[in-house]
C-alpha cells in the first residue's frame, strides 16, 4: 500500500528500487535507473496516459523496456506498474524507448548505462514536448548503478482565443482571415509562429491549441494592383506551356498575387485579400477596410495585447471593421540599367520598422510594375508608409535546372545571372492621390575589411590553404531581408573579405571560425560592433577589423541552494558592457546562459576576457533576456567577477530568487 501525504513519493521510490533490485537483469546493458512523474505545469497534478520518450546517448545506450502498468494495477500503485514494465509488457521493438504513465503520472526506465538522458512527453489535451524543471528539457546525468527518482516533466495545456468579426453595419464578416501574432517584451510582434484561421458564417473565429503567452489579434487587409498584360501573359504561358513574358521568379519573390479574380480598371486589375471588401468604381476609386488590430487599432504599436495562461479560454475578443477612404499612388521604379519591369512594390506601414525583420510585415498594398517601370497602386488609406522593392538575385543555373521546362518558365526564359537589387522611399499619404513616386534600385552597400589573429594557435585553414572562417550580416529590426548570392562571406587566405551588396539598414556582424579561436573585437570607424549594430546606408564600408584570439576564458563551479547542490538552476553570465549597447537587438549577443547539472555543476566556455555579472537562478526566474529590463534585474543580484584572457576561473554561486 503506497503511503499518503508528503512521504508518498519516497515510499513509492523505495518500492520501485526494491522491485528493480529483485528482478533479473536479462537484456540489461547497465544498472542505472531513472524514475519520475509527468505533471500539469499549472496545477502540479499528475497526468495519466502520457507518453514519455527517452532520448538515449549515442554511447552507453540503455536497454530499458517501454510499456505501462498492467490492467490490474490500481491507480497510484507504482510498484505494480513497475513489475509490469519490468516484465517487458508493451516493449517497443524500434525507436527510442517510450512508455505510458499510470494513474499517478509516474514512469521508470531501468537498465541504463552511465550517460546523459533527455526526456519528452505528450498527452491528450496538452501541448507536445514538455520540459524538465522548465529548463527546456535538461538532460539527466547518471553514473554506473546510479538511481535518480525525482524527474518531473511538466506539460502545458493549450489556451483558446476566440471572438467574432463584424462589418461596419454589424453584419458578420464571413470568410475573413484572422491572425494571432506573438508579441515580444518590447511591445511589437515578435519572432514565433503566427496562427491563421478564417471566420465562419456567423463571423466567428477560434484559435485552439495556443501556447500560453502574449498575442496580438489582427485582421490583415491588402489591395494588390497588377497590370492586366502581366496576368494575360502569365495565363497564356501556363496554357501553352511556354515562358510567360513576366518571370514567375520575380513575381513570387516579390510576394505579389497574380490571379484573374480582381476587378479590371483600365490596364490594371485590382484585387483584395478578402472577397467581402468593396470593389472599386469605374475610375478605380475605393473605400477600403484597413488592417485592424484588436480592439480598434490601425497599427501594432497601438494594439492591445491578449495574454492567456495554460488552459485559459479567452472569448469575446471581438473586432468591428470600418470603411475608410483610399487614394491611388503612381510612380516609377528604375534600376541600374533603366526602367525596372515586372518588379513588385510593397507598401508597408512605417511603424513596421520597429518589428523584427524575421516576421512577415503586414503590407497595406502591393503593385507590379509595367514593362516601362511605371506602377499604379489603388486602395491606399491615409498614413505613413515605406514603399519597398526587393528584387532577388539570380545565380547561374546548373545543367539540370537549365533543362527543366518549369525552371525555364519561372525564369521567363532568362537564365542570365543577375544581382540582387533593393530600393525604398518613405511615403506620406493623405486624402488626395499621390503621383511621381520614384524608387531607384541599387545593389546595396558592400562591407569589406580584414581578420587579424592574436595568439599562437594555428590559424584555421582549409586543406586548400584558404582561411576557414565565415562572416554573416544578420538583419535587425526594420531591415528588409534579401537573399545575397554566395551566402556567408568567406575571407581570403590573408584574412581579407568583401561582401556582396546589402540593403540599407542595421545588421549584427557575426564571425565564426574554428573552436580554437573566438572574437576579441570587431570595429569600424572607431565603433565597437559588439555593442552597436553595423548601420549601412548607400555607401560601402571598407574599414572593418575583426580580431580573433586564442586566449579563450572559461568559468565553472557549483550552484548551491543553501547547503545542498541546486538541481534546477540556470547560470547567466552578462558582460558588463551590456549597458553600452545602443540597440536592444544587440543584447542577445552580450550574455551567455547554461543550465547547471542536476548536481549543481556548471561550465561556461568560449568567453572573452573581461568583467561579467554572473548569477544562478531557478529556471522559472530567467524571464525574457532579450529585454534590457530583464538583464538589469539579473545584474542587480549577480556577482561581478573579472576573468583574465585565457583564464579558467572557478566561481561557486548561491541560488538566488529573482525579485518580482
Task: Please write out the topology.
Layout: H1 8-22, E1 32-40, E2 51-55, H2 78-86, E3 98-100, E4 106-112, E5 115-122, E6 131-132, E7 140-142, E8 147-155, E9 159-166, E10 177-182, E11 195-198, E12 204-210, E13 213-219, E14 223-227, H3 228-240, H4 248-254, E15 263-265, E16 268-272, E17 287-288, E18 292-293, E19 306-308, E20 313-314, E21 319-320, E22 324-335, E23 338-339, E24 344-349, E25 365-368, E26 374-381, E27 383-391, H5 399-402, H6 405-410, E28 421-429, E29 434-440, E30 447-454, E31 470-475, E32 496-498, E33 505-512, E34 518-524, E35 527-528, E36 534-536, E37 541-549, E38 553-561, E39 564-565, E40 569-575, E41 591-595, E42 601-607, E43 610-618, H7 628-636, E44 639-643, E45 648-650, E46 653-656
Parallel strand pairs: 1-8, 9-20, 9-21, 14-25, 22-29, 30-37, 38-45, 38-46, 43-46
Antiparallel strand pairs: 1-4, 2-3, 2-5, 5-7, 6-8, 9-12, 10-11, 10-13, 13-18, 13-19, 14-16, 15-16, 17-22, 22-23, 22-26, 24-25, 24-27, 27-28, 30-32, 31-33, 33-36, 34-35, 34-37, 38-39, 38-42, 40-41, 40-43, 43-44
Helix pairs in contact: 1-2
